[in-house]
Amino acid sequence: MGRNKQYVRLGKTNFLVVDLTETLRLRTEVYPGDPKPKRQIFSEIMKTGWEHYIFTLGDHNFHPHGDAPNHQNPDMPDEGFEKFNLGWSFNSACMIDLSNSLEAKLIEGITHIREIKREHLEPYKKQLLKVGAVVIRTGYDKWLEENKPHSPENLPYLHRDAAKYLTSFRKLKVIGVDSLTVDKPGQHDSHIALKDRLIVESLVHLYDIPKNVRARFDLMTAAVRIETATGGPIVAYAFIEQKKR
To answer: What SS3 state is found at 98?
Structure first.
């Protein structure tokens, strides 16, 4: 097994678990203009007997991270990241992989699609009707993993019609992507359309979800709830039940 996936046994059931979460590093590339993570020594073990650091982090520095409604909806200032309790953490899910679509382009050795359109999602209507979460892979997860600098004109995003289409599926609670944002830089349409959902951005290792289960698997998107924050860390795992032979 690779470092991003492992077989585990929970109760009487065996699962393949794929880790969709990346280690947070001080050198992590962030959205252009955002502050990078910093670490300050609070206590040195040779002086006090214990080591203690203070980390200064933006609430959108993590891969993955979630967006709260107050992030880009001025009419929802009291809807912070603390709202995403256990009711949002465990869902059946499907994955839509657009990384090899005709519109995908090779940029600096990584192929990904930039604009996610409604017509990309419509063929998956049957799956979307049955699940509580959808994960859309553009191929940008590999860009995140290689920690390449980001540029606004290169970031994948959901076209507003695609975001509105997803809202037509009432069971969908979680919308996940492998981009830093669901919106085209400078716009807010997709965040506004999805304000009642948990938006999970910057998912990684999505290619490790086996192709034969992408129509239906179990997804954990557990939020580290921070009161009043506009976003925060998400711990994300895909659980694939291993059928007995």
So the answer is: coil
Q: Would 172 be classed as within a structural domain? A: yes
pTM score over 0.70: yes
Residue 79, domain extent: 5-22+59-241
List all residues 6 or more positions away from 104 whose beta carbon is below 8 Å from its beta carbon.
Answer: 98, 111, 112, 113, 138, 139
Residue 117 buriedness (CB in 10 A; 0-12 / 13-18 / 19+)? middle
Does residue 35 fall inside a structural domain? no
Query: pLDDT of 162-217, one tens digit each?
Result: 999 999 999 999 999 999 999 998 899 999 999 999 999 999 999 999 999 999 99
The answer to whether 177 touches 200, Cβ cutoff 8 Å, is yes
Across 151-230, the runs of DSSP E, i.e. the strands, are 157-158, 174-177, 198-201, 217-223
Q: How far is CA 54 from CA 36, 42, 51, 95, 229, in A?
A: 14, 6, 11, 37, 18
Q: How far apart are CA 13 and CA 46, in angstroms?
A: 47
